[in-house]
Each structure stands twice: as C-alpha cells, then as structure tokens.
Design brief:
By secondary structure, the protein is mostly helical. The chain folds into two domains: about 25-215, Clc chloride channel (Orthogonal Bundle); about 230-425, Clc chloride channel (Orthogonal Bundle), CATH 1.10.3080. The chain has helices at about 5-60, 65-85, 90-100, 105-110, 115-130, 135-150, 160-175, 175-190, 195-215, 235-260, 265-270, 275-290, 300-310, 320-330, 340-355, 360-380, 380-390, 400-410, 420-425, 430-435. Helix 10 packs parallel to helix 14 (about 320-330) and helix 15 crosses helix 16 (about 360-380). The chain starts with a helix and ends in a 13-residue tail after the last helix.
Length: about 450
C-alpha cells in the first residue's frame, strides 16, 4: 500500500530532526576538542615559563628554595581549598569521580569552569615555586571542565562529554592522540562505550589538529632509535619492571594514606593544620632540590629527555630524590599532575640501573624505566606503553615496553590493589554528597587529593 503524501512528509521531518540532532552533537564534541587543544597549548606555555623562572632564581640564589617553596606550597594549598575547592592534586581523580556520578548538580563542583580556571592558576603557582608536578593531569580536569560546560548547553548525555574532554586533554598535552583514546577507555571509563567511541575519537582529533596547527608535529621526548636486542639484555626488562612497579605501588600507598587521613593524633594534627603541613612538604622538596643540584624541581622533562636520548646518565640519586620530591608534592595536595614527574622518576631509576646493565643502551633502558614506573603508579599498562611509544615515535621498543608495563602492573598490585587515580577518586564522593545533602555528615578528605 503506497504511503500517503502526509505520512511521507512526516517521515522526512522526523528523519531531518534526528539528523540535525546527530550533527549538533558531533559539532559540540568537535568544538570542545578544539577548545581543549587551545587551552592545553596555553597551559604548556605558562607551565614552561613558570618552571624556567624558578630555575633561573634558584641557580642564582641556591637557598631561595627554602623560602619560596614552603611559602608557595602554603599559598597554593590555601587557594586550592578555600578559593578553588576541588582543584587539589592531579585533577584526574576528580574527572573520574564526576564520570561515576549521574546527577548534574553533583558533578558540577568537580568539573566546573571555575575549578578549571583555578586549576590553571594554582598549578602555575606550584611550578613557579619549584613543586615537582606536571601539567598533564590538570589538563585532563580542565578538558573535562570545558566539555562539561559545553555538554550542559546541550540536551545529550553528559558522560560522553566528560570522557571526551579527559581524553582530549591527554592527547593535546602530550601530542599523543592514540594515547588519549586509550586513556579514555582504560583509565577513565574502564570500559568501551560503543555509542560514544566515535565522538571521543572526534574530540581527540580536533584537539590534536589544534595542537598541530599551532606548534607543529613533534614527539614529546623527540624521536629515538633505541632498540633492545634479544638475549641477556632482556633481563633488564624484568628487573627494571619489578623495581619500577614496586616503586609505583609504594607511591600509591603513601599518597592515598595521607589523602584519606593518617589514623590517630597525627591525622588529626594534619587535618587541623593543613597549610603548615603543606609548607612542611614544600620544605622537604627544597631539601631534595638542594641535594639534587636543583634538577628535581618541576616536571623533570629536560632530565628525562637527556637520559632517553642517551646523552648522559644523571647522578644516581636523581631517581630516588625525584621520587621523594614528587611524593612530598602529591602529599601536600597542591594542584599538579604526576604524569611528567613519574616519567622522570622512571628515567632516573633506569639511569641508576645502567651501572648494572652496562650492555643495554641507556635510551632503551630509560624507556623501559619510564613505562615501568608509570604503569606502577596508574596501573593502566596499555596506556603506559602506548603513551611512551607515541612520545618517542620508537616502534622498535613496542614489545619490550608492553612486557615491562604488564610486569610492572602486576608488581605494583602487591602493594596497592588499585591505581592512584581511582584510589583518590573515592575521596571526592563524600565531598559531593555533602554539598548536595548538607544534613548528612561526611568525613572531609585530608592530605593529598
């Protein structure tokens, strides 16, 4: 039976509305990706300027870190807790927590534009004062905040917007589009949602193209030609992966312990005097910085790059001191990521092991160390080896890096049952529930977030 003209017109109208809705949603994701890419570039610039300014000062007045760093940590903690709440720490736990919450009003305090702006301001302050932090984790929270704001203006499901914002943040921060997609799947959602996968990839592409247009095609650590020959050299993979994984698990245990609050009187004192505690952590960073010839301040990018390219093996104490300074920075709760510092810690561990494995090229050993420690901290092995492989554009090391990531992930689980970001994400649920239901008391998380 032929379809009447009226029914056919109605059918076309419905199909047009559906198509318009689809294109509207896709356009929103692409616009968000462009904005995330542009903001990530700006964050990279201000972070580099802040870090360079501190290093310039400390090279001329070595003891200035004992004044500037503790005071800066105290100010950053005050701003993060009183002016820009929920901007503490890396920012990835907040994005994960927001993704797990269905109610829009409860999500807002974790990924609002106010939080995103505060994150950029206080993260920059931390690097200006010598904190051993990175900008990549904050870029994830800022990316989620941008996409969340766009999503609130549209009638679509918000989970996909948050996921895409976080993935685009990683892609733009490191110029690693594949790692951004894997991060969104493995670390943020812990699953693959078929209905939003294409939109997430679209946002990552938009962010990547924005970065490509502004600063060109580049590898974060530069292209390398490191290789690992079959044979005895592979013993280094096993040893480095176990040490890196255990060190990453230890980092998780320490940071989460202080984040949830120490038991007894010590925990009560830290909770009551959070700003003095943060200043004490800043003093710890300054002590590490003095003994480490100032190389442990900031992200550690230059030092890690030098090891990756085999230019030199740094002082054997660089890895342990960078581990301590990053731990102090994370314990304090000041805004700043652990991605870049984790890569430099891993490179430092590899530099120390180069004494034992003199037959292994330093660049290859550095890549293994970076993947091992990062996988130990985040317990996301696929993300870890993909991001390092993409940073260096070294395909010859893919198999060793995959093996190192899996071994390190298993080693880390001996000390910590879940990765750092998911463990810290639990601390933000009581805060959100309290803001939504003020009549119900909830314990406020203390320490690092």
């Amino acid at each position: 039976m032929p379809i009447s003209a009226n029914r056919y017109a109605t059918h076309l109208a419905v199909r047009s509305r559906i198509a318009a809705k689809r294109w509207s949603r896709r356009s929103a994701f692409l616009l968000g990706g462009v904005l995330v890419g542009a903001v990530a570039i700006g964050m990279a610039y201000v972070a580099d300027v802040a870090q360079a300014a501190f290093l310039w000062a400390v090279q001329r007045i070595p003891w200035i870190g004992f004044v500037v760093t503790p005071l800066g940590f105290g100010l950053a903690t005050y701003l993060a807790r009183n002016v820009f709440p929920n901007s503490q720490g890396s920012g990835i736990p907040q994005a994960i927590a927001a993704l797990r919450i269905e109610d829009q009003d409860q999500r807002a305090p974790l990924v609002s534009l106010r939080v995103g702006i505060g994150k950029i301001i206080v993260m920059t302050l931390g690097l200006l004062c010598g904190a051993s932090t990175g900008r990549e984790g904050p870029t994830v929270q800022v990316g989620a905040a941008i996409m969340f704001a766009i999503g609130r203006l549209s009638p679509y499901r918000q989970g996909g917007f948050l996921l895409a914002g976080a993935a685009a943040g990683v892609a733009a921060a490191f110029n690693t589009p594949l790692a951004g997609i894997v991060f969104g799947i493995e670390e943020m959602s812990r699953s693959f949602e078929a209905r939003t996968s294409g939109l997430i990839i679209g946002a990552v592409i938009a962010a990547g193209l924005t970065s490509l247009a502004v600063i060109g095609d580049y590898s974060y650590f530069g292209a390398t030609t490191a290789t690992l020959p079959l044979g005895k050299a592979w013993i280094a993979v096993l040893v480095c992966a176990i040490i890196g994984g255990l060190a990453g698990g230890l980092f998780i245990r320490i940071v989460t312990l202080f984040a949830r609050g120490l038991p007894g009187a010590a925990g009560d004192i830290i909770k009551r005097y959070q700003i003095p505690f943060a200043m004490a952590c800043g003093l710890g960073v300054a002590i590490c910085g003095l003994n480490g010839d100032h190389s442990i301040y900031g992200t550690g990018y230059e030092q890690a790059r030098a090891i990756v390219h085999g230019e030199k093996a740094l002082d054997y104490w660089f890895g342990p001191l960078k581990f301590l300074s990053t731990t102090f920075s994370a314990m304090s709760g000041i805004p700043g990521g652990v991605f870049s510092p984790s890569l430099s810690v891993g490179a430092g561990i590899a530099s120390a092991l180069s004494v034992v494995f003199s037959n292994v090229p330093l660049g290859a050993l550095a890549l293994i160390g970076m993947v091992s420690y990062l996988a130990g901290v985040v317990q996301a092995p696929i993300t870890s080896f993909v991001i390092v492989s993409e940073m260096t554009n070294d395909h010859a090391m893919v198999i060793p890096l995959m093996a190192a990531a899996l071994i390190a992930n298993a080693s880390s689980k001996f000390l910590a049952r879940e990765g750092l970001y998911h463990a810290l994400a639990r601390n933000f649920r009581p805060t959100v529930e309290t803001s939504a239901q003020p009549d119900k008391a909830a314990k406020e998380p203390t320490g690092a977030l």
